[in-house]
Specification:
7-stranded parallel β-sheet; Rossmann fold; 18% strand; NAD(P)-dependent oxidoreductase; alpha/beta; globular; 38% helix; NAD(P)-bd_dom_sf
Length: 300
């Protein structure tokens, strides 16, 4: 039987996973909320389905026919996880040991005042979004236990990659260097998210949670300064967090301060990060921009 992936939410991270599996000969389908993305998925050879919190997949039996693997990247809302709200019974009816990957966040750990967290650390989310993620993770693991499905959670750090990175922020003139004493963030290149998910598919372990981040938790102002250096631009002046004018959403990202340990993906899944720190990731992104600007679009 051939492998078939169904993605609930085919966004930045899930779409790269889908592309890589398509290249390996998998059949891939995925959901989107917009007509524009619907057509874009179809153009890539990904069978598109419409889905959002208020719109379940119209013909879910047909959509899940023959599916061997499910990847979930839709975030939970105020009413819980939208996929489980609409399609819990449909997923429960999948064959035993069907693989389900849930893309979560390191926000489930909350604030640790700069200390290290592992997958064994207690889940102590700081804000509303983190609490929703903890509840959603629990619901997915419960589904797996009750119905003999291989559910795994991937706790993603701050995601960056092509078109979504500090270089783009600097080039657009939106960059700021907000300094909060002792604050560090973990981050991960989207390429390494895909590597980790594919490795987990190869080595399924029901009930496992994996921290997905690089080796270098770093202050956000340092990342902006490095991006400016790569681009030959002067970095913006530093602003203290206490005096900076930030939206509630932007300020909420500074609530959590922790260093995320990624040892489990290396030990259990054999993951070898392509971009072990933000310096390597940003340099590669800049190299790619320069290649495209000169018309050299060969592989890395």
């Amino acid at each position: 039987m051939s492998n078939k992936l169904f993605c609930f939410g085919t966004g930045f991270s899930a779409r790269l996973v889908a592309r890589k599996l398509r290249a390996e000969g998998w059949e891939v389908a995925g959901t989107t909320r917009s007509t524009e993305k619907f057509d874009a998925l179809k153009a890539e050879g990904i069978t598109p389905w419409q889905f959002d919190d208020g719109l379940p997949v119209g013909d879910i039996a047909n959509a899940l026919e023959g599916v061997t693997h499910v990847l979930v990247s839709t975030p939970p809302g105020g009413n819980g996880d939208p996929v489980l709200n609409h399609h819990r019974a449909d997923l429960a009816a999948l064959p035993a040991q069907t693989w389900i990957g849930y893309l979560s966040t390191t926000g489930v750990y909350g604030d640790r005042n700069g200390d290290v967290v592992t997958e064994e650390s207690e889940l102590l989310p700081s804000g509303k979004r983190g609490r929703r993620r903890v509840a959603a993770e629990k619901a997915w693991f419960d589904l797996g236990l009750r119905h003999d499905l291989c559910v795994q959670s991937f706790r993603l750090a701050g995601i960056y990659g092509p078109g979504r990175n500090a270089l783009e922020t600097v080039r657009s003139g939106r960059a700021r260097r907000i300094v909060k004493e002792g604050q560090v963030f973990s981050r991960i290149h989207v390429e390494d998210i895909a590597r980790t998910v594919l490795a987990a598919i190869e080595r399924p372990h029901a009930g496992a949670a994996y921290n997905v981040c690089d080796d270098d938790a770093a202050p956000p102002q340092d990342v902006i300064a490095y991006a400016c250096g790569l681009l030959g631009m002067d970095p913006p002046a530093e602003e203290t967090f206490e005096t900076a004018s930030l939206s509630p959403m932007a300020a909420s990202f500074y609530e959590d301060n922790k260093r995320v340990d990624n040892g489990r993906i290396k030990r259990e899944l054999g993951v070898n990060l392509r971009y072990a720190d933000y310096q390597a990731g940003l340099q590669a992104l800049l190299d790619d921009i320069l290649r495209k600007s000169t018309g050299d679009v060969g592989e890395n």
